[in-house]
């Protein structure tokens, strides 16, 4: 950014664009980091958010020299090691019940596969690789990534990926909707997938949150065995956090505070505290309405840029809108914003596609055209 401001004036527009989009959220995050109950955790989260803003800027800058074919190859190659390493573990019988491959958690691999599948599917239908061999390789990679996704056991990633494929196919290739509708009963034949789905819908108890807490404390002698599915557990967690949010709804309690204070307001929390499993609740708790509004501003700014940029073709616009939409849906039930690896990939792809322009103008030719448009 310093080089753009002091040397290459052509890139100052990109600095301004990224600053307008990300600076409110980063400033709100810095304010929340100051109030973090565990300072080192607050600093780490703040630097994660700074990384997202930086990678967004890098995506804008490098997209001037990237064709869609080049971006497709970059994304395709990025998944070869983690996806096939995870499948290799499964083939050898050394994988855990939910594979994470080279990532630290199965959810991170799952949402990497979500981005990987969605982008390569978009690239395939858009013809970014025109050779028969290239298209065949892409279909093979999509199939391998789908299998890896299913073996992660991450249900929110299942939903996000399936929702994307269904909506995108409805817009681009309606004939693909029928095989996609047949996909759920087929994947349920995989035992690991069926087990995760059954876990989500079984164990639901009709009792209220207050009754459950009382039973855990031993106040109810004849409560019997009570089990919670993951959806009900999340709902009770959000319910327990809401009175705290109402007490400090403008600025919140500081970055990393949700997990720290969950031990106080949520008796069902794990020994080390529980994350919110909801980006919006966690932002509201940790940074208040100031931080939540600035985060929502990022989402709508991307939609605005895509809508009014005449250099972006309509199919790329639809892809980015659906990617943002399904990412936002996944954020309702998962800690999406706090997965560093996947956010680096997602924000790079989104912002690169915000500035790619016409594939017929690449590298120096594209920059010359930009100068001439002046």
UniProtKB/TrEMBL annotation:
TM spans (from-to): 14-34, 46-64, 70-95, 107-125, 137-168, 175-194, 279-305, 339-357
Organism domain of life: Bacteria
Gene Ontology CC, one term: membrane
Membrane topology listed for this record: Multi-pass membrane protein
InterPro entries: O-antigen_ligase-rel_domated, WaaL-like
Keyword Magnesium included in the entry's annotation: no
Residue ranges of every copy of the O-antigen ligase-related domain listed in the record: 144-295
Pfam family, one: Wzy_C
Keyword Transmembrane helix recorded: yes
Keywords, alphabetical: Membrane, Transmembrane, Transmembrane helix
Localisation per UniProt entry: Membrane
PANTHER family, per database record: LIPOPOLYSACCHARIDE BIOSYNTHESIS PROTEIN PA4999-RELATED, TEICHURONIC ACID BIOSYNTHESIS PROTEIN TUAE
Designated name of the protein: O-antigen polymerase
Source organism of the structure: Sphingobium chlorophenolicum L-1
């Amino acid at each position: 950014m310093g080089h753009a401001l002091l040397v290459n004036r052509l890139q100052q527009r990109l600095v301004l664009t990224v600053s307008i989009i990300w600076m409110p959220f980063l400033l709100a995050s810095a304010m929340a980091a100051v109030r973090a109950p565990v300072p080192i955790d607050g600093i780490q989260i703040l630097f994660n958010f700074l990384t997202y803003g930086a990678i967004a800027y890098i995506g804008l800058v490098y997209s001037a020299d990237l064709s869609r074919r080049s971006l497709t190859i970059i994304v395709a190659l990025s998944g070869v090691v983690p996806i096939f390493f995870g499948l290799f573990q499964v083939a050898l019988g050394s994988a855990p019940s939910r594979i994470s491959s080279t990532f630290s958690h199965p959810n991170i691999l799952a949402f990497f596969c979500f981005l990987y599948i969605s982008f390569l599917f978009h690239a395939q239908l858009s013809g970014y690789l025109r050779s028969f061999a290239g298209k065949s390789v892409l279909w093979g990679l999509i199939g391998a990534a789908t299998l890896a996704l299913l073996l992660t056991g991450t249900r929110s990633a299942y939903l996000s990926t399936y929702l994307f494929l269904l909506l995108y196919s409805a817009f681009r290739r309606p004939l693909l909707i029928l095989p996609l509708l047949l996909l759920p009963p087929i994947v349920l034949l995989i035992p690991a997938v069926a087990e995760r789905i059954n876990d989500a819908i079984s164990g639901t108890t009709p009792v209220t949150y207050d009754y459950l807490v009382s039973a855990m404390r031993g106040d109810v002698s004849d409560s019997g065995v009570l089990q919670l599915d993951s959806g009900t557990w999340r709902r009770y967690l959000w319910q327990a956090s809401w009175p705290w949010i109402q007490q400090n709804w403008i600025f919140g309690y500081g970055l990393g505070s949700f997990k720290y204070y969950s031990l106080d307001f949520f008796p069902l929390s794990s020994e080390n505290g529980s994350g919110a499993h909801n980006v919006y609740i966690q932002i509201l708790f940790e940074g208040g309405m100031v931080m939540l509004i600035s985060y929502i501003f990022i989402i709508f700014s991307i939609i605005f840029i895509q809508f009014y940029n005449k250099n972006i073709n309509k199919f790329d616009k639809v892809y980015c809108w659906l990617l943002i939409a399904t990412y936002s849906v996944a954020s309702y039930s998962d800690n999406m914003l706090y997965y560093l690896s996947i956010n680096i990939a997602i924000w790079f792809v989104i912002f690169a596609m915000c500035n790619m322009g016409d594939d017929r103008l690449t590298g120096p030719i594209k920059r010359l055209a930009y100068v001439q448009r002046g």
